[in-house]
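Newbie here. two chains, one complex. Structure please?
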Amino acid sequence: MARSISYREAINEALAQEMERDPRVVVFGEDNVGGTGAPGDMDAWGGVLGVTKGLYGKFPGRVLDTPISESAFIGAAIGAATGGLRPVAELMFIDFMGVCFDQIFNQAAKFRYMFGGKAVTPVVIRTMWGAGLRAAAQHSQSLLSVFTHIPGLKVAAPSNPYDAKGLLIASIRDDDPVIFAEHKMLYDTTGEVPQESYTIPFGEANIVREGPPNRTDVTIVAIGRMVGIAVEAATELAAAGIEAEVIDPRTTSPLDLDTILESVENTGRLVVVDESNPRCSMASDIGASVAQEAFGALRAPIQLVTGPHTPVPFADSLEDLFIPDAQKVIGAVKTAVDWSR
Amino acid sequence: MTGTLPSQVTQALGPDALLQAYRTMRTIREFEERVHEEFASGDIPGFVHLYAGEEASAAGVCSHLDDRDAIASTHRGHGHCIAKGVDPIAMMAEIYGRVTGSCKGKGGSMHIADLSKGMLGANGIVGGGPPLICGRALASKQLGTGGVAVAFFGDGASNQGTTLESLNLATVWNLPAIFVAENNGYAEATSSTWSVATDDIADRAAAFGMPGVIVDGFDFFAVHEAAGEAVARAREGGGPTLIEVKFTRYFGHFEGDQQLYRGDEVANARENLDCLKRFRARVTEAEQLTAEQLDAVDTEIAALVERSVVEAKAAPKPGPGDLLTDVYVSY
């Protein structure tokens, strides 16, 4: 029975249902309980944005606070995953990868390969990404491409509550290390989410807005919060007579390139919307792959709509310029549609 | 806590346990001396870091461990692997990059692992192991297995943030973890007397609210006793311990190291401090084992290591089909 709940609630529900189903699932991170050792209430926070709120009461002993020691507790999640637990650790902001990345990319990601296929590391690292909260340069980045680059890691970036729940449950049940990237501007967005447990497989893109058969002008691939921006742009473009198909890859590793290629074969044009810095981004990666695999189908140069090659600025006037908006997407689509040799 | 020990410690170890301890240390020594020789001949690819001289640490600690327990190791990991029960034949094949190796030739010397033995891997990253060991200890605690987890790390890693964070977390979470700081005097070519700000690494235990002890790393019995206390405390829910084991390594940082930074400590250690010599003298003088029993182990191990090299050299390398497998569980 579908109800409308928030992205935050969808993630919380996924965690609760998996903890209920599997006693090996444990949850920890900075203030994931909130209040441990303090004179006041336990479960005071439930994570910095309240995503794990209430889990402590339901599963005492399986939701833990940690010191602010990302290397130690992210590494501990990885070690515990090799020892029979299925930990879900919270790396509060994706930007904090800088203080624990060795454990993620040299340890977790490589165990299986460098140990000859004999390691299983079912760890999920939940982390908050993206700009828009006026959180400035060290709390606003979109570093998905860094994780996507690393063989051995899987990366999910849900754009709506339904996907958040299904992808998180799939992540927890997955035997490989997963980076589960939650966009901070989506926590309060709502959508229909079934009460019952369900999974969304990795590597299956979602065609969020299907273009009309045989007369769709452009394929727009968008990630995370940009999916909503792309749909907004597509709606406005339709009113102007330009039809767009919008694809949300949902996971960047593995990436469902087939769905993107199939769409581009029909439309002949590709716009990728990714709020990250442009160099070596998901946008440049998807753009390069499509250029390589579907060159003959392209009728216009691939357009990449990204943030600029700068840190994320603090002042709202600048941050709003940094983040792609519907008008930038519309501009890129028009450039592609109007392009002629 | 160096040198002499209460006689009950040695008495507590029966002849079988003593013989096993000797076999472990002899296997490590024979293995490492042979890798040293073979590396010089040019047949072994990549980097190797040898554990010779440090055998009493791995053997003394791991003699307390069983299948419930896990260890994490370092780039100098062959000794820990052998002491935790990894097959030396497969290890040698791994070092040669052969498909019959512990990791199908995909890991090499710095990544030998056998998770079925609780050996979480040698580790190419200095300080890589301690956080993982916090996790293994957490898993033992949550699952109620009674297992403990041991992080072996060097004096170099004692200065890494990962190690210091892990010491703190282990106390905060009251984990059944043991941190074994193997201070062999050098982090690569830099002296630990310079790079470690405290007099002893064990001094740092106080800062993290756990017991810290220093042991003579050339003395199996000293290590065995200290580790026994730490393991017992961890199993009983008493939390972590930091053990600093002091000794020197017999070879360079890696094979090929000219060791121009060193004094003459190796010759002295080999002559006067060597863990195998001291073990032999002690157990024969106490009439716990005979020289013949120990000689028989020497012969047996020499044959084992010889076989490991012959088999490794004869084994095939991984093929092209192996390049793209084992990245994920699905492929």
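Moderator note: The interface with chain B takes residues 24, 26, 61-62, 64, 66-67, 69, 71-85, 87, 102-103, 106-107, 110-120, 151-152, 154, 174-176 of chain A (CB under 8 Å). The first helix of chain A runs from residue 7 to 21. Thread marked as resolved.
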